[in-house]
Amino acid sequence: MHALTHAHTSHRRLPLMLAGLTAALMPWLAAAQFTQSPLPYAYTALEPQIDAMTMELHYTRHHKAAVDGLNAQIKTYPELATMTIEQVLRQVSKYNTAVRNNGGNHYNHEIFWKVMAPAGQGGKPSEALDAAIKAQFGSMDEFRKQFSAAAMGRFGSGWAWLVVTPDKKLAVTSTPNQDNPLMDLPEITVKGTPILGLDVWEHAYYLSYQNRRGDYVKYWWDVVNWNEVNRRFEEAMR
Ligand SMILES: [Fe+2]
User: Fold this and answer.
1) CA 144 to ligand 1 centroid distance, Å
2) CATH number (domain holding residue 156)
3) How many angstroms does the Cα of residue 113 sit away from the middle of ligand 1?
4) C-alpha distances out from residue 5 to 9, 10, 14, 16, 181, Å
5) Is residue 41 part of a domain?
């Protein structure tokens, strides 16, 4: 009788036990929330503008460290497990420095890999983007000049960006370290949706270009994937 009662009780408790087990496993299940998209080309694909060793170290070490660091913060902020990286960054002021640094780094690199393609395979600006660039900057040359100047003018580590601002205009800006224009931080003066981003940390170019950031920026234009920039522009303008 006792055994029967016990079995009956256990049976009734099974769903509760399973729920408890799932809750206990959640940190591990959630730990893979943020993941690196596969690199859309081989490490060698952007040579000679960007060498294979730089690409491999950059993707497998620098970017991966950011993803691991961000996932580690799910323990501190469980809600991150159900958020997109864009949602996290738009309210990053609520979180600690590790979320800001690793979240920014992850998002920035996700964009960076996608807005590059082997030279000759990146297409060209769409009619709509071309018109918007000419309306905002006067000419494509002037836009490139301003973007390159933003990349060169960023002291130390950081990023240059072309963004669509909340009023649907284009703007060139740059951010320090791993910050970006999505972040709700007072020091991000130009806010918007990035459609093109350039990593000017030394780890992005030092093996081939050493200290010559200017050469890196100049040759980087050869590997811009305009097809992806066009797609991002259309999406941001909706
Ligand atoms: Fe980087």
Assistant:
1) 21
2) 3.55.40.20
3) 10
4) 6, 9, 14, 17, 62
5) no
